[in-house]
Design goal:
The chain has 139 residues and is mainly alpha-helical. It is built from 3 helices and no strands. Pfam families: PMP22_Claudin.
């Protein structure tokens, strides 16, 4: 096989394996899981780390599908390619692009759950305590 085809296969395998690792890392960081319950900050960092791995996996899949799509487009418009051996964009390319974009979108959503070091809200003040009623309060 051509070197570019082997490279796109390797990128897709890497994207699949990274996606599986990202699923396991992100699941440990979910709020509904009992793993690492004692430290919520570490738990949220695990979710963010899973999101980063999802983004990397999505980028690997996007590079692989775009690289192969570019190869197909160049071969299609090459005048020296015989008509009966020309490829067109198939459903696998569109599924690859959709999967890559969904992986990056999901990773971005997980990265948005990053714990903040400080809040932008002012410190909460308690309500003022009312003076005890004397019984002479009229409405």
């Amino acid at each position: 096989l051509l070197g570019s085809l082997q490279a796109t296969r390797a990128l897709m395998v890497a994207a699949i394996l990274l996606g599986l690792v990202a699923v396991f890392v992100a699941v440990t960081g979910m709020k509904c899981m009992r793993c690492m319950e004692d430290d919520q900050v570490k738990k949220m960092r695990m979710a963010v780390f899973g999101g980063v791995i999802f983004i990397i996996a999505g980028l690997a899949a996007l590079v692989a599908t775009s690289w192969y799509g570019n190869r197909v487009a160049r071969a299609f418009y090459d005048p020296f390619t015989p008509v009966n051996t020309r490829f067109e964009f198939g459903s696998a390319l569109f599924i690859g692009w959709a999967a890559a974009s969904l992986a990056m979108l999901g990773g971005a959503f997980l990265c948005c759950s990053c714990p903040r070091r400080e809040t932008s809200y002012p410190p909460s003040r308690g309500y003022p305590k009312n003076a005890p009623s004397t019984g002479k309060d009229y409405v």
